[in-house]
Amino acid sequence: LLSKQVKTSFARAVSIKNLLSHPKSGGEVTVKGWVQKIRIMKNVVFLDINDGSCHSDMQIVVTKDKSRKFNYGDSLEVKGQLIQSARNNFEIHSNEVKVLGECKTTEGYPFTPSQSHAPEYVRNYLHLRPKQKKFASLLRVRHHALMSFTDFLNKNGFINVHTPILTSNDCEGAGEIFFVTPFSEKVLKEMQRPGIPLENAFFDKKIFLSVSGQLHLEAVANAVGNTYTFSPVFRAENSKSPIHLCEFYMLEAELAFQSNLVELSRFIENMLRNVTEDILLKCSTDMQQCGFHYQKLKNLFDNSDNWPIVQFGDALEILYKNKHKLNTSIVSNDGLSKEQEVFLTKHFDSPVFITNWPKELKPFYMRSSKADPEKVDALDLLVPTIGELVGGGLRENDLSRLKQYQNSSLDWYVQLRKFGNVPTAGFGLGFERYLLFITGVKNIRDVIPFPRWAHHCFM
């Protein structure tokens, strides 16, 4: 009975997206949305409303009534006839218009109708930012990108796993982690055991916000096969960079029975090609609102040539030969700067995989290269304008090597290699960086609803 009531409630209003996709002139419809524009004529008022289902507005024709006034931003419920206008556009000739919520624009509302606002200004009003049509377009692209990634992985037999937010691991080993402890000192004192510091009393050990779900995914992949997770991760980085956040989302996957770095690279490439082509096909209108160059991105993915796979040492040689074109110093022990990463994508005129990294530049769990024990079978995928988008590699299976890095909090990880272990490979994709790449948005704080970065945690 409850499900029938819910269906009936939603059936009363039709989304503007559905109306414009399958218009039937003359039919009576009900729509709900927010006023975007108001044009007052002699006998009628034209209202453009948007309900968030698509970028396009629906024009409402309202008989002029001096007793009624509408404001930009008002939420309305409109009943009327869907009519094809002389310009072949569809509009609703209203029979009834109900104001559901008034927008008091004179009481501090920060946005002006029909005016473009700078992203830096809009970012000051995160709670109201979704009302900006450009940002609403970004949210729809973000939604569709997530659906497309999960659809691709599901169709390829991956199982979704919820990895924990609270963890005793720092699997990246960088130390840029958030320490977690209860706010209540009373609770901590009640729970404290002998020999345990007060700040660790709740779990009897130090606990952090997760920087990655990868190690947990490996545990699951060793029992059920290919797995993935889409989760928030946290980095305590004091950075003002336009490509860094303290809280962001990662798509991470582990492939069981996989020990070939080229095959892993081609899987990542195939996934990104499929997802991006799907977004270009289904979200082109919203993508254009974000400021991206449709044809440039389309050309990049229409090229059927496989993306180059280049060893780290060979990439350094290319950079040395072109150092006069670079502003940053080339230091092999420091890895690649963003400028150098982007230069390599320009050099190959394509996304490019960088493989066979020096072991000191990658985490302990990357497999040592059989050809050179000073290298590991790791990869970074570099893409134009962004640089690193994906990091991954083959996982170390050699117990003796793992024990060199072992600490007590990772005993369980080493133990995985003792009980029916299989070779695994995996990767992590920064979701917000991917959105920067495909949309052309300049700052990562503008592709996530509620960004967190150093000194900023509003709401």
UniProtKB/TrEMBL annotation:
Biological process according to GO: asparaginyl-tRNA aminoacylation
Aminoacyl-transfer RNA synthetases class-II family profile domain location: 139-449
Pfam family, one: tRNA-synt_2
Keywords annotated in UniProt: Aminoacyl-tRNA synthetase, ATP-binding, Ligase, Nucleotide-binding, Protein biosynthesis
TM regions (residue ranges): none
E.C. numbers: 6.1.1.22
GO cellular component, one term: mitochondrion
GO molecular function per UniProt: asparagine-tRNA ligase activity; ATP binding; nucleic acid binding
Gene3D superfamilies xrefs: Bira Bifunctional Protein, Domain 2 (3.30.930.10), Nucleic acid-binding proteins (2.40.50.140)
Family of the protein in this entry: Belongs to the class-II aminoacyl-tRNA synthetase family.
NCBIfam families: asnS (TIGR00457), PRK03932.1 (NF003037)
Protein name in the entry: asparagine--tRNA ligase
Organism: Tabanus bromius (Band-eyed brown horse fly)
UniProt lineage: Eukaryota, Metazoa, Ecdysozoa, Arthropoda, Hexapoda
